[in-house]
Write a structure and sequence with these properties.
The structure holds two protein chains of two kinds.
Chain A lengths: L2 E5 H8 L5 H7 L5 E7 L4 E6 L10 H11 L11 E2 L10 E4 L9 E8 L5 H18 L7 E6 L7 E6 L5 E2 L8 E2 H7 L1 H6 L9 E5 L5 E4 L3 E2 L12 E8 L2 H17 L3 E3 L1 E4 L9 E4 L1 E2 L4 E4 H8 L5 H9 L4 E4 L4 E5 L10 H12 L19 H15 L3 E2 L5 E2 L1 H4 L23 E2 L4 H10 L7 E12 L7 E12 L5 H15 L4 E4 L5 E11 L2 E9 L1 H6 L6 E7 H8 L1
Parallel strand pairs in A: 4-18, 5-8, 5-16, 22-25
Antiparallel strand pairs in A: 1-3, 2-3, 6-14, 6-15, 7-14, 8-11, 9-10, 11-12, 12-13, 16-17, 19-21, 20-21, 23-24, 25-26, 26-30, 27-28, 28-29, 29-30
Helix pairs in contact in A: 1-3, 4-7, 8-10
Chain B lengths: L9 H9 L8 H8 L3 H13 L3 E14 L1 H9 L2 H12 L4 H8 L3 H13 L3 E3 L5 E3 L7 H12 L5 E2 L5 H9 L1 E2 L7 E13 L1 H12 L12 H6 L26 H15 L3 E2 L5 E3 H4 L31 H13 L14 H4 L2 E3 L4 H8 L6 E10 L11 E10 L5 H14 L5 E6 L5 E11 L3 E11 L1 H4 L8 E6 L1 H9 L12 H6 L6
Parallel strand pairs in B: 5-6, 7-10
Antiparallel strand pairs in B: 1-4, 1-6, 2-3, 8-9, 10-11, 11-15, 12-13, 13-14, 14-15
Classes of the chains: A alpha+beta, B alpha+beta.
């Protein structure tokens, strides 16, 4: 979940007054925000934003805007927005997506802004907005990359196209020499960080003005000239590129709203595409592209369990930034603000009604449906086994289900064939899904030689293995295993324990010879019930013991609890 | 601190009873007055001394002689001098080397013994340089004395004080302080004489007042019970706080005990348990829950994929098509969907389930209406393991399917969870966000001991989740953070401790907070 850090004074200025921590905690839920920490000495508020479908909230301005709305305060009107049939004046500001645009990142849009000389606070806030939009919403620039430039040194129209990575050169931000696009990818930090998005393409995205002056290589890095925005700049040019037009338009609307709230005048830019888009071949940005979402009073009442009035609904939705109308028949038509596009279906509108109304106002009631509670048969069987094992003096253990090839295979004198491997292990410690409980139990003994004996432990848990006859080629079993360690532990003692457990389960079993490298030859057996193998037990092989750092005899038994339960009938 | 009389051993009691402030307590005294063996006397004195009931008064050194293995041999087979006499009596005159060879002893021993026997006129050397008995036979007094000493030392060492001058002289020739080649080992022992301390005297008084004799019955036995001995003799009273022997009981893991409790409470509220395999696929783990395939939580760095088989064909086409449609365009369920190209091949990718909600989705396809379902299931996340993140952990999740389900009944149910399952005294609801529920609610509760904490998340499944899976009534979905709750109940603060391999830590763990 996105977290932001904001300067308290700046945030309170956006909000319109100072708030105490308690007051903030009171109103934050309206923005699905949580106050993580308020360090008054440093003047830093740490805010966690829970709604991953609301990137407009991932900045100080955004949170402040939604809280102002929720508390009935005035908010700026965004008059710069064009929409279908309403195109705002873009002057000479033109942006052209060239014919040779990169086919893998086909969209780029832009707008401009001008205002007072930019202060450090405002620049910081702007950078944070950009950061959250590109990192979180834009999936580390894969879906959205954004650049801010000094518009004074730009000659319109600006062009988005592609360039030969080995022939095109410019000086990247914070560097002092001309470099080819490919060199930038290889040598500059941002190039290494984000290069994977474009490195296998024949041509790289390139942004330049009408004089051929480089603005940037999206989504990697700005130029060190036009692209080096600093404190004191007044006129800015904002550009975004990526593979999804709606995401870009939304991101542009969010950034524009933030900048407008910070005191900038937003100057529309006419963007021309060499292809048709769902909003035409020319779009003047920022552009209101959102669609209405419909629901009814009845549906809202049914989902929330409260009664609602038309007027109330309109007011509540306006507190969430949503413009709504309600027809005589109770049909609600909702238009989100330009910076939101999360009203996918009626329930999204209804939730906003609930949030604005406050959850405490909903009330509580009990469900009247009668249903029968029931445990899984495997759970009931586990409880029976647990009772028997505890009575026999065994300690129940609970283990992790992932470990290394070493622990599950090598230490056990087994090959890792038939075990489930993880494709993308975080480390070799989490390379396999547990095929058996025995390694977990032996790990316990290996770690526990300091503990007074006797050592008796068991676990009831899941194991999983490859099984071509099962769905998806793997099988998860409920497994039951126990271990005894110490001088005097031998085949007889474990066989006694096995036979005691099975006696109390009411299961008659026979023992068959077993060849299993985990056990000492001739001192282990397969347990069969009605001709079906249900488990194995025996004395653990000294080499296995040595692998685990164990110096005393250990016996173990392991059963497939599902088969055991089935044969029990 | 006054001594607990009940912690005294009968041997100590007896010693205290026979002593007074003037008594010189030592081994001799105890042997004479109580017929204690050396062992018992030693035990009694050392225990009393350790408890400060007696103190050292006098220390003297006593020398005694005990048989070495050589001495044991000589006791049975004779001293070298004795054996020479016997040999010569039998075989007649022999040279010294011949004697050495016949007796299989050191030639120096033969030499010195011959010297001794010649000096007493017992033996002589004949003209052929052979040793022979000198007639008439004269017994060597020193050898005789040594023989007597040997016999006397057969069972108990000889005290130096019990030897006369002659004997002392005789024994000095065949004894040494160290080594085993002599007949006797000379042992120096400290003989300590003790006297009662003030505490000892007061203990003695108490014992007498309480009529404790040291003859009381110890461990109760079948013999005592059946013989009726208990009618005449009192039982010794035991110290109540004597050190204990550790027991090693079999025990249920406190974490599983906690989970069992939660399961029982849910069953009591009418929930039926669900379960499923550890290996899932992208379809059920994400698609079916209306999480777009580009959702950040579906990144390669958020879930564990299965290497082989990497993909499964085992997804019902019906569900796959419905879900594809709802992602792309809302599927006709009054939704826009996510407006992107859904990739069915991505759906088939196998992974380790990352959220318990997968099983809720599975359950929807076969659920009864009305129905309540839950599961406490192991999930896997691609997280750096630390105190608050595990590679695998339990999630407790469930659903309520009912035509009456709405936000109001959701809040009612959450309150029931808060009080029934978590023992909360106060509940707070805040709007939450989950990709598969709308509205979504987070529940914070106040526990009388543990204070405020987040109990879990919940919401009403989006129609985009339920409709494609064939359910057209509202479904409440909820999850409870059971791992964190268990940590608090067990007084732990590291998630890794819940799955600890250390036997001692686990078997000593107990539920301290609830």
């Amino acid at each position: 979940m996105p977290k932001i850090e904001v300067n308290d004074k700046f945030f309170f200025k956006c909000l319109g007054r100072e708030y105490t921590s308690d007051e903030l905690e009171e109103i934050f839920p309206k923005a699905k925000a949580e106050l993580d920490d308020y360090n008054k000495d440093e003047g830093v508020l740490k805010i966690e934003l829970n709604d991953t479908a609301r990137p407009d909230l991932w900045s100080a301005s955004g949170v402040a805007r939604s809280l102002r709305l929720a508390t009935g305060k005035k908010v700026k009107k965004y008059t710069y927005l064009s929409s279908k049939g309403d195109t705002k004046d873009s002057g000479k500001r033109q942006f052209i997506v060239d014919e040779n645009y990169p086919r893998y990142r086909q969209y780029s849009i832009a707008f401009a802004a001008s205002g007072k000389p930019i202060s450090e606070d405002v620049l910081k806030a702007l950078i944070q907005t950009q950061e959250k939009i590109c990192m979180n919403y834009g999936r580390k620039r894969k879906l959205i990359a954004m650049g801010i430039y000094k518009s004074d040194s730009i000659t319109y129209p600006v062009h988005y196209g592609s360039a030969d990575p080995d022939k095109t050169m410019f000086v990247p931000l914070h560097e002092d020499r001309n470099m080819t696009l490919r060199e930038i990818l290889k040598e500059v930090q941002k190039g290494k960080e984000y290069g994977a998005i474009i490195e296998n393409e024949l041509r790289f995205p390139f942004l330049f003005d009408d004089k051929g002056e480089a603005l940037s290589m999206p989504p990697i890095i700005n130029s060190n000239t036009v692209g080096a925005v600093e404190v004191g700049d007044k006129n800015l040019f904002v550009e975004m590129s990526g593979p999804n037009l709606k995401m870009l338009l939304l991101a542009a609307n969010i950034v524009a709203a933030d900048m407008a709230d910070l005191g900038f005048e937003i100057l529309p830019v006419k963007v021309k595409f060499p292809y048709k888009t769902e909003f035409g071949q020319t779009i003047t940005v920022p552009y209101y592209f959102q669609e209405k979402t419909e629901t009814t009073i009845e549906e809202a009442e049914k989902l929330l369990g409260v009664t609602l009035k038309a007027k109330e609904v309109v007011k509540l939705l306006s507190e969430m930034g949503i413009t709504a109308t309600v027809s005589e028949k109770g049909k609600i038509t909702a238009y989100p603000p330009s910076y939101r596009n999360d009203l996918i279906s009626s329930v999204d509108v209804i939730e906003d009604i609930a949030i604005a109304r406050g959850l405490d106002s909903i009330g509580k009631s009990s469900l009247s449906d009668f249903t029968i509670g029931r445990l899984q048969p495997s759970e009931r069987f586990s409880r029976k086994l647990r009772g028997i094992m505890v009575g026999l003096g065994y300690q129940e253990m609970m283990y992790n289900y992932l470990s290394s090839v070493k622990e599950y295979a090598t230490n056990m004198r087994l090959s890792d064939e038939g075990m489930i491997h993880i494709l993308n292990p975080m480390s070799e410690k989490f390379a396999l899904v547990r095929p058996s409980i025995i390694p977990s139990l032996l790990k316990t003994e290996g770690l526990s030689s300091h503990a007074p004996y006797p050592h008796k432990a068991f676990e009831l848990g899941k194991t999983a293995v490859l099984d071509s006859s099962a769905s998806g080629g793997t099988r998860t079993d409920n497994t039951f295993a126990f271990m005894s360690a110490g001088e005097g532990e031998n085949y007889n003692s474990v066989s006694s324990a096995v036979s005691t457990v099975l006696y109390f389960l009411g299961i008659e079993h026979t023992l068959k010879p077993l060849e299993d490298p985990r056990f000492i030859k001739g001192r282990c057996a397969t347990v069969e019930v009605k001709g079906k193998a249900v488990g194995v037990f025996g004395e653990i092989h000294p080499e296995v013991l040595t692998n685990w750092g164990i110096e005393v005899p250990v016996t173990t038994a392991e059963f497939n609890a599902d088969i055991l339960r089935e044969v029990k009938g | 601190m006054p001594i607990d009389i009940k912690s005294l051993h009968p041997l100590e009691i007896k010693v205290l009873r026979v002593s007074d402030e003037k008594t010189e307590l030592n081994m001799d005294f105890l042997e004479k007055n109580l017929s204690f063996s050396v062992g018992h006397a030693n035990q009694a004195l050392s225990w009393l001394f350790a408890k400060g009931l007696i103190e050292e008064k006098e220390k003297s050194t006593v020398i005694s002689y005990e048989l070495t293995p050589n001495g044991q041999f000589a006791l049975k087979n004779g001293l070298v001098a004795e054996r020479i006499v016997t040999l010569l009596k039998e075989k007649g005159a022999m040279t010294l080397p011949e004697i050495t060879k016949a007796l299989e002893v050191e030639s120096s021993d033969v030499g010195s013994s011959f010297g001794l026997l010649r000096s007493s006129g017992t033996l002589t050397m004949d003209s052929e340089k052979k040793a022979c008995i000198k007639e008439p036979y004269t017994e060597n007094q020193e050898v005789k004395t040594q023989r007597e000493l040997l016999d006397r030392a057969e069972h108990t060492p000889l005290d130096e004080s019990a030897l006369n001058e002659n004997e002392k002289k005789a024994i000095s020739k065949i004894s040494r302080k160290r080594g085993s080649d002599s007949i006797f080992r000379e042992v120096e022992k400290n003989l300590v004489t003790y006297s009662l301390t003030k505490e000892g005297l007061s203990a003695k008084e108490q014992i007498e007042k309480m009529h404790i004799t040291g003859e009381e019955l110890g461990e109760n036995t079948k013999e005592i019970i059946t013989s009726g001995k208990w009618r005449d003799t009192p039982f010794r009273e035991y110290a109540l706080n004597a050190p204990l022997t550790r027991l090693f009981p079999g025990r249920i893991n406190p974490y599983s005990e906690f989970i069992t409790t939660v399961k029982d409470k849910l069953v009591a509220m009418g929930f039926e348990e669900f379960d499923g395999p550890l290996v899932e696929n992208e379809f059920w783990n994400g698609d079916a829950l209306f999480m777009p395939q580009f959702h950040s939580a579906r990144d390669i760095h958020d879930v564990y994929y299965v290497k082989e088989p990497e993909y499964t064909d085992d997804i019902d086409e019906k569900w796959l098509n419905n879900v594809k449609a709802v992602h792309e365009n809302g599927g006709g369920y009054n939704s826009r969907g996510w407006e992107y190209k859904f990739d069915p091949n991505f759906s088939r990718r196998q992974l380790l389930r990352s959220q318990g909600t997968v099983l809720s989705a599975h359950t929807l396809t076969k659920a009864k209406i009305p129905g309540k379902y839950f599961g406490v299931v192991r999930c896997f996340r691609y997280d750096q393991v630390d105190a608050t993140h595990g590679a695998d952990f339990y999630q407790t999740e469930g659903i309520v399917i009912s035509k009456d389900a709405n936000l109001k009944t959701l809040l009612g149910m959450l309150e029931m969870f808060a009080t029934e399952i978590a023992g909360a005294t106060d509940v707070k609801y805040v709007p939450g966000y989950f990709p598969f529920t709308e509205p979504s609610v987070e529940v914070h509760i106040k526990h009388p001991v543990l204070g405020w904490f987040e109990l879990g998340g919940s919401g009403i499944f989006r129609p985009e989740v339920t409709r494609p899976l064939g359910i057209d009534v509202p479904v409440l979905a909820w999850g409870i953070g059971i791992d964190r709750m268990a940590l608090m109940h067990l007084g732990l603060n590291d998630l890794r401790d819940l799955f600890d391999n250390d036997l001692e830590k686990v078997r000593m763990r107990r539920n301290t907070n609830a």
